[in-house]
Write a structure and sequence with these properties.
The structure holds two protein chains of two kinds. In chain A, helix 2 links the parallel strand 1 and strand 2. The N terminus of chain A is likely disordered. Chain A is built from 18 helices and twelve strands. By secondary structure, chain A is of the alpha+beta class. Helices cover 42% and strands 12% of the residues of chain A. A three-stranded antiparallel β-sheet of chain A has the order 3-11-6, covered by helices on one side. Chain A has a three-stranded antiparallel β-sheet with strand order 8-7-9, with helices on both faces. The two termini of chain B are 36 Å apart. In chain B, 74% of the residues lie in helices and 1% in strands. Chain B is mainly α. The chains are: A alpha+beta, B mainly alpha. At the A-B interface, helix 1, helix 3 and helix 17 of A face helix 1, helix 3, strand 1, strand 2 and helix 14 of B.
Chain lengths: 456, 316
């Protein structure tokens, strides 16, 4: 194209035209050559040997990317680590909860990525070569012996699915319990004298709250957080493994099952019966915490991480129990994600120091820090105790977690299946709560989004 | 490439029969080039940060790309999606509905307010009225959205007022209501752009020859007739600016909607700006996001250009 600027032929008479043309031609040359983006350079370098010998005694600085809602926990974890490895400094990089997953892939792809992070779209991160293969660390630190294989499975990725293959997320094994928080004073007022263990019993409690003029479930749904209850219902009716298969994109997994529709119909019925606060579709999580702490409702369905966000003045005035089972012979379920397992960015410049951090997370010190933040350990889950109303919340979290572990009931959020499913679910949950869609159409819409985005 | 041909063609026809200068001399003639040299840094920045970005958006719109990994060329598929997938088409329809709140109401209100203020005698009361009306304009849309979120909440000012006057049955969480959320969001836009329209129209009224009003009065025209026959025709140019600026802010709205509702509930307040953001950053569908952005840009140009013509032609 630049050949036209020869002495014999000069069509660019007008300077403005010439410069504009040059600019446009230049930008085309810059951008039009090939498609944007690049295939990842040979996936993750396999040569990360996890050779941490020297790293323990050399100066290094690690960046730990955390969501604002869990920053307090991340700081405690980093402090405990720095006590053990004084030469390694850990800095937190904090992002608003609802932005964490949005920002993370771009940060990991940048020249200055955080060293440690928890990508929710682990399949995408592996596909784009953003996270480090941790197999060498797994054998060096003997994770396979120390950590339950079900916890490690969540960090394994192969052929577009989670559950088997090389390890990309590892460390210890502690995670939140997602269940039903209750206001102790309100529960007493409506005469709740024992913890409901079946959905029918739970529904009876919802009804007695409603009859007493108390909002049965305080929820925020402008941000789609009735999704916690929805996911619990899905796991309860589908069984945890079937839900997990969908989230992990196991071949053949589908949401289009009678059980998923039955679970969604329960949520629809509870919405129709007015069991949620009337302004659920208009408020965000913080507002719902405020309403719950102010005693304007009986239950809040969420995970134990909210103990970090609920007002300190509310401590001791609320408890938690695991979501009840479908019936007496079915397992109790909870979504969880390993808060002591992390990924190391492929482009991290301190992989060895970061590996030391992962190793530290499998220690009992780290498990103690996690337990304090509401993330009980999968390693010492004591079975048999069961949750009672008069236990302290710490006891309830431990006992509840053990109950789920004994039932093999841990699964994951459908939201994590693909990014599009996450967006779609918020829209669908808002429609369901307002009676603008029904259970069958909602499951169909989610399945369609899931299939379309998974097969891309 | 068509731009290349078009511009050169225009340059050639603009200088018919002009003797050809030797290019070497033309390039080094200082007078011709001095001005362009001064403009060069700005042009370079414009090219790099504006033109390049625009062209890149167009280019990305033909690909399926998550923003990081490898991309696949998909031709016009993203554009087909924009016009066939309801969740992509609906934001465009919502944006047109918002024109009612961002443009029609503020311009009508601004006209009446400006005409009323013209007749205000007191210097203090006039200045006070202008300041109060313009005040929302200096508040960022994001901050306004947050403040209005509180006012619209179930225990917010609006519901409190409704309860106080006995309209308890009308109270609701406005931004969470499928039927009212879009209008509620739109009203924030009304509140934001009324001040700008009023101020522009007031300054326009100041330029109308007072003799015209006098003549109209002598002919027996009342206040309404003066307004319709003197004020409105005299404000064509200002009305053109108001309409243009507010239509663009309606169609390209982002901050107000993103902070008030994020497009919810159930997509009822989704506008193209927020949808582009969600597609690009939440759904990792950068190609579809760019296609929607390009369609939006073309729509805005297609609406604004005829409007500009309309307001210019009438004037001459």
């Amino acid at each position: 194209m630049l050949k036209t600027n020869s002495a014999t032929q000069n069509p660019w008479r007008h300077p403005a035209g010439r410069i504009l043309t040059l600019a446009i031609a230049g930008t085309f040359a810059l951008s039009a050559c090939s498609g944007p983006g690049a295939a990842p350079s040979e996936a993750t370098p396999k040569d990360f040997t996890c050779d941490t010998q020297a790293a323990a005694d050399s100066d290094a600085s690690l960046t730990f990317f955390t969501a604002a809602g869990t920053a307090e926990y991340a700081q405690s974890l980093s402090d405990a680590f720095m006590k053990q490895y004084p030469k390694i400094k850990v800095k937190l990089q904090t992002e608003a909860d609802n932005n964490y997953n949005t920002v993370l892939p771009r940060l990991l792809a940048s020249d200055n990525p955080p060293d440690l992070a928890i990508p929710n779209d682990l399949i995408g991160a592996v596909k784009d070569g953003l996270v480090t293969n941790l197999d060498a660390c797994a054998s060096k630190f003997a994770w396979e012996k120390e950590i339950p294989s079900s916890a490690l499975a969540a960090g394994r990725v192969s052929e577009g699915g989670i559950g088997s293959g090389p390890l990309y997320q590892g460390g210890g094994a502690s995670g939140p319990l997602v269940g039903v928080f209750y206001n102790r004073e309100v529960a007493e007022r409506i005469g709740l004298d024992k913890i409901p263990t079946t959905v029918a019993g739970f529904e009876a409690a919802l009804k007695s709250a409603k009859d007493a003029g108390i909002t049965p479930i305080v929820a925020s749904n402008a941000d789609g957080l009735t999704g916690h209850l929805f996911n619990l219902l899905l796991g309860t009716y589908m069984g945890p493994q079937d839900l997990l298969n969908v989230v992990w994109r196991t071949p053949g997994a589908t949401l289009d099952t009678p059980e998923a529709k039955e679970a969604t119909a329960v949520l629809e019925k509870w919405a129709d019966d007015g069991y949620f606060n009337a302004d659920a579709n208009a408020i965000n999580q913080d507002a719902s915490y405020g309403q719950f702490a102010a005693g304007r409702g009986l239950f809040l369905v969420s995970g134990t991480w909210v103990t970090q966000s609920l007002p300190k003045s509310f401590d001791g005035k609320y408890g938690i129990f695991p979501f009840p089972a479908k019936d007496d012979s079915s397992p109790q379920v909870s979504m969880t994600n390993n808060q002591l397992a992390m990924s190391i960015a492929s482009r991290s410049k301190n992989k060895e120091a970061a590996a030391l951090f992962l190793d530290f997370m499998s220690t009992s010190e780290a498990a103690a820090v996690a337990a304090k933040a509401g993330y009980p350990s999968a390693l010492n889950a004591k079975t048999g105790a069961g949750v009672t109303l008069d236990q302290s919340i710490d006891e309830q979290i431990q006992a509840g977690y053990a109950t789920i572990a004994a039932d093999n009931g841990f699964d994951n959020w459908l939201n994590n299946a693909t990014p599009e499913v996450n967006t779609k679910m918020t829209e669908q949950l808002q429609s369901l709560l307002a009676g603008r869609t029904d259970a069958n159409s909602m499951v169909d819409a989610l399945e369609a989004t899931y299939v379309a985005s998974r097969d891309k | 490439m068509s731009a290349n041909i078009g511009i050169d063609g225009a340059a050639q026809t603009a200088q018919p029969g002009r003797p050809r200068r030797r290019p070497g001399r033309a390039i080094f003639r200082p007078r011709r080039w001095a001005g362009w040299l001064f403009a060069l840094p700005a042009l370079a920045f414009y090219g790099f940060f504006n033109l390049r970005a625009i062209l890149q958006s167009v280019q990305y719109s033909f690909y399926e790309w998550n923003g990081i990994g490898a991309s696949t060329f998909v031709g016009f598929q993203n554009y087909i999606d924009v016009f066939t997938q309801p969740e992509l088409l609906r934001p465009l329809i919502n944006a047109f509905y918002l024109i009612l709140f961002f443009t029609v109401i503020p311009v009508l209100f601004g006209l009446v307010a400006a005409a009323t203020m013209r007749t205000m005698e007191g210097r203090f009361s006039g200045a006070l009225a202008r300041t109060l009306l313009f005040l929302p304009q200096i508040i960022p849309g994001a901050a306004a959205a947050v403040a209005w979120t509180w006012m619209y909440s179930s225990n917010g000012v609006i519901n409190q007022v409704l309860r106080a006057v006995g309209l308890e049955s009308l109270t609701r969480a406005w931004l969470g209501d499928f039927d009212f959320a879009l209008s509620a969001v739109g009203f924030i836009g009304t509140w934001l752009s009324t001040g700008l329209c009023t101020l522009l129209l007031i300054s326009g009224i100041g330029k109308i020859d007072t003799a015209l009003y006098e003549a109209a009065r002598l002919d027996g025209a009342n206040a309404v007739q003066q307004f319709l026959n003197v004020t409105v025709p005299g404000l064509r140019r200002e009305l053109g600016v108001c309409v243009t600026v507010t239509i663009i802010s309606a169609l390209a709205s982002f901050d107000v909607v993103y902070l008030a509702t994020q497009g919810g509930p159930g997509g009822t307040t989704m506008v193209p700006g927020v949808q582009v953001y969600l597609l690009a950053f939440n759904d990792a569908r950068l190609g579809a996001a760019c296609a929607l952005a390009v369609v939006l840009a073309i729509l805005i140009v297609a609406i604004i250009v005829p409007l500009q013509r309309l307001f210019q032609e009438r004037e001459s």
